[in-house]
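S., here's the first fold you wanted:
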Amino acid sequence: MTGDFTPLAEAMGRAPRFVLFAGKGGVGKTTCAAGAALACAATGQRTLVFSTDPAHSLADCLGCAAGGDPSPVPGQPGLDLMEIDAGRSLEQFRARHGPALTDLLETVTYLTKEEASGFAQLGLPGIDELMGLGRIADLLAESHYQRLVWDSAPTGHTLRLLALPDLLDEWVRFLATLQAKHAYVIERLAGGRLGEPAGDLLFQLKRMIRRFRAILSDRTQTGVLVTTVAEPVAVAEIKRLIDSLDAGSLPLLSVVVNHWMADPGQCLHCRTRRAAQETQVQRLRWLFPHLPLILLPEQAEAIAGTTALSDLLGTTVPGLHAGGSGS
């Protein structure tokens, strides 16, 4: 059977350069992200698909190995894969900025040098994941990839990740205020000045936060595909997710309903399940009339590997084209 995922491929043809797949765990979000990236690469667009889920499964879905840097997916020209490691990003942050953060904390607080150094090793709350987001921002700023597809973590983790810029902005503002007050006292009483590395660190953090905020809110560059299944609990969770994304002004593209019983046949169980699914689909249409629904049929077997994904997408994907308005 081919072409079952064609509606998803067509949606990617209309989507902006950067697409985020978000949703509840276990609904097929990773499979959809992998299939969407494969469809983009099949049109000749240089594509990167990456994951920020601590329990990475993207490489398993594509049937290959992955690391913290982009690497080619075997047998798929133009498609690269990356699994972002927040812990590795934190270590890189510590190596680069640890001394400056220690200096800043020692200077503007009552912490001793040893205490400030220990705090700096812990880092600001969420700084490891922000470094991962900074890596995404760097990739988007480059022209190497025409399309980027983000397989995010399940709902709760994703919302926390997207809220990090606001949290860290408060931390940076607090530290900057302490730094400014200290610098004023030093200049008035001793004629000295606070070291530049601490100021550079705060500037870089502010710049990273601004960049990522700008990317997420840019409808010409970014779009979100919310993935779910037609079940009451999943729909309730998706409503909370979409409400949160709307509140954060993230550009939503559509809702992908996975595991749809396209042809229940004469099986009583299947027909009963299909009727229950139709109720939830109608609920989704009522809740989000502004968002188109993409119904992806349930498969008889688990989808793994690029061959299986390609079969689902069809050998020729009608309507798929480079770029898009994101509308």
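And the second, which I think is the more interesting of the pair:
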Amino acid sequence: MIRLEKLSKTFAGKHALRQVDLHLPRGEMWGLLGPNGAGKTTLFRILMGILKPTSGTATVAGLDAFDDRLAVKRVLGFLPDEPTFHSYLTGREILELCSAMHGLDPQRVVRRLSPLIDRMQLSGALDSFAEDYSRGMKKKLGLLLALAHEPELLILDEPTNGLDVEGTALFFSLMREQQAAGRTVIFSTHLLGQVESLCTHAAIIHHGQLIANGELATIAASASIDGGSLEQAFVALTQSPDASLRAGITLPTQRP
């Protein structure tokens, strides 16, 4: 579903991504991990066709993420970390507008999503201005928009930020349902326990380079932590000089 080959992106001579090779098969759920500034959002923007790679290739469902970006947007649904909406539109109007932009019948989409709207407890707020929504409600509306056109791939940037315990539990259920329906899911998070609960695979980016990817047990083994947690492996890979050198990374000198 996703294939990255020697993918690099620079801004003003600085590397945001460097020689990333990553293949995500269809139907799997992956966590994308990395410290702040590691390159996760840049990677998502390239997959969305918002940014053009400096070098290398990025394909989604066999389509070039940038050259075929209009077709790619029909294949994937995206949830940003901080969804923003037109201040003068209600939640229903935004959902109808999004559906129409995908060439779908807005009323049919709203009817199809009605059970999910109820589960998200948005039914009573759908005719209110989205600008007045809480952060968690905006996140739920953003997820509805990502699902409106029944995409093959979901790309979610920090999807549980702003959600309460009940909303997070609903997100877990929805993602398992999406995978069971054959969709591919990749989401970024700083909550490694969520990746361990939802995913069998993960990728770790550090200083713009992919330093580990694959099954969670394989990642732990690459950090020489047999039977350890993903958090232990993550810390070892992103803070250990030996692990970083294996990935070709030079870590900044630690000051006392």
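Why I say that: The beta strands are 2-11, 14-24, 29-33, 55-60, 63-64, 76-79, 153-157, 184-188, 201-206, 209-215. The longest helix spans residues 165-180.

Talk tomorrow,
H.
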